[in-house]
C-alpha cells in the first residue's frame, strides 16, 4: 500500500453540471403538458400582431381608406377594421391549434353553433341590458330621446350596417380575449384567474379610445368578467358574441350615445345626455354610469339562476376547468 488516492474523474461533475442546465432551461419553457401556457399565449399574441401589422401595411400600400388612421368611424370602417382583426385572431388560433393538435371548436367558438340559439339569447340579453340602463338614466333625468335623426331610407340601411359591424366587433373581441387565450391560460392558472387577467387587458385596451376614462375602463373589466361567466356556463362564446354585438348596437345606434368614449355617425336619434357624469357616464357614454355596475351586478345573479352549471363536457373540460 503506497497510500495513494484513487484517480479523480474530473469529467463527472462537469457532465452533471452541464446536464442540469438544459433541464433548468427546459423547465422554464416546458411543463407536464408540453410548452407552458404563458409561452403559448405570448406566441398567439405575437402571431396575431404580426398578421394584423402585415395586413395594415398591405392596406396602406393598396390605399384602403378604411385602414387609414384617423377619420370618422363609419359602419364600413368599423366592419373592415374589426373583420380584419377577427380574421387575424382566428388565423393565429388555427395555426397554433394545428401544432397543438386541437380542434378549433375547443377554443370556445364551434362553427356548428354559429348564430344559433345561444347567439340569439345573448343578443336578447344584450338589448335588454342596455335598455334597462338607459331607462334608469332617463327616469333620473339624464337622457332624452330627441327626434329621429335619419331619413326613412337611412333608418333601415344604417340599422343593418351597424348590426353587421357590431357582429364583427363581437366576433373579434370575444374570440381574442375569451377564445384561444382564455382556453390556453386556463390550463396554466385556472379559469377565473385567466378571466380576470384577460378582462383587465380588455379594459386597458379601451383606454386608448378618445373620451374613455378609468370608470369606463373598469366597466369594461366588469363586462369582461360577466362575458367570461357566460362562457363558463354555456361552454361557448356564442352567447357572449350575441350579447356584445347587441349591447353595442343598442348603445351606439338605437339610443345614439357614446360607446366607450366614441360618438359614431349614422345613429338613429338626435338624443342628448344631461346631468352629472356619475349618472350619464359623461364622455364615456352610458357604460360609464354608476348604474352600469348596478345593472351588471343584477345581471350576474339573474344569469346564475337562468343558466345552471353544466355537466362536464370532454370537449371543453380544459377550457372551463379551475
Biggest β-sheet description: 2 strands, antiparallel
Indicate the percent of residues in helices: 55-70%
Rg, rounded, reads: 25 Å
Distance between the termini: 67 Å
Envelope shape: globular
Strand tally: 4
Which ranges are low-confidence, i.e. pLDDT below 50, for 5 or more consecutive residues? 15-20, 312-322
Tell me the number of helical segments per DSSP (H or I, 4 or more residues long). Answer: 11
How do the strands of the widest beta sheet line up side by side?
Answer: 1-2
Structural class per helix/strand content?
A: mainly alpha
How much of the sequence lies in strands comes to under 5%
Task: Outline the secondary-structure elements.
Elements: H1 11-29, E1 30-31, E2 34-35, H2 37-61, H3 75-100, H4 117-139, E3 143-144, H5 152-178, H6 180-189, H7 191-206, H8 214-234, H9 238-254, E4 272-273, H10 277-280, H11 290-306
Antiparallel strand pairs: 1-2, 3-4
Helix pairs in contact: 2-3, 2-6, 3-5, 4-9, 4-11, 5-6, 5-9, 6-7, 7-8, 8-9, 8-11
Amino acid at each position: 500500500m503506497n497510500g495513494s488516492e484513487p484517480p479523480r474523474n474530473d469529467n463527472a461533475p462537469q457532465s452533471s453540471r452541464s446536464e442540469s442546465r438544459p433541464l433548468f432551461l427546459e423547465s422554464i419553457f416546458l411543463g407536464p403538458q408540453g410548452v407552458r401556457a404563458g409561452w403559448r399565449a405570448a406566441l398567439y399574441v405575437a402571431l396575431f400582431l404580426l398578421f394584423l401589422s402585415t395586413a395594415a401595411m398591405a392596406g396602406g400600400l393598396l390605399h384602403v381608406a378604411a385602414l387609414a388612421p384617423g377619420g370618422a368611424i363609419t359602419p364600413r370602417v368599423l366592419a373592415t377594421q374589426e373583420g380584419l382583426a377577427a380574421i387575424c385572431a382566428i388565423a393565429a388560433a388555427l395555426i397554433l391549434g394545428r401544432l397543438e393538435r386541437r380542434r378549433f371548436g375547443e377554443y370556445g367558438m364551434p362553427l356548428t353553433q354559429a348564430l344559433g340559439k345561444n347567439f340569439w339569447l345573448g343578443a336578447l340579453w344584450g338589448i335588454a341590458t342596455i335598455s334597462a340602463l338607459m331607462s334608469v338614466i332617463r327616469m333620473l333625468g339624464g337622457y332624452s330621446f330627441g327626434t329621429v335623426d335619419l331619413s326613412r331610407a337611412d333608418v333601415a340601411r344604417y340599422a343593418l350596417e351597424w348590426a353587421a359591424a357590431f357582429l364583427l366587433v363581437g366576433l373579434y373581441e370575444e374570440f381574442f380575449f375569451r377564445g384561444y387565450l382564455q382556453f390556453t391560460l386556463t390550463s396554466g392558472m385556472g379559469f377565473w384567474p385567466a378571466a380576470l387577467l384577460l378582462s383587465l387587458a380588455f379594459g386597458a385596451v379601451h383606454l386608448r379610445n378618445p373620451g374613455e376614462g378609468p370608470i369606463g375602463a373598469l366597466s369594461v373589466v366588469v363586462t369582461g368578467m360577466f362575458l367570461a361567466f357566460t362562457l363558463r356556463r354555456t361552454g361557448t362564446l356564442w352567447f357572449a358574441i350575441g350579447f356584445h354585438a347587441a349591447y353595442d348596437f343598442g348603445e351606439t345606434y338605437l339610443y345614439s350615445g357614446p360607446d366607450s368614449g366614441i360618438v359614431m355617425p349614422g345613429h338613429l336619434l338626435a338624443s342628448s345626455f344631461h346631468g352629472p357624469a356619475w349618472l350619464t357616464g359623461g364622455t364615456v357614454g352610458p357604460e360609464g354610469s354608476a348604474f352600469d355596475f348596478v345593472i351588471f351586478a343584477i345581471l350576474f345573479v339573474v344569469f346564475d339562476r337562468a343558466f345552471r352549471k353544466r355537466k362536464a363536457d370532454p370537449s371543453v373540460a380544459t377550457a372551463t376547468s379551475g
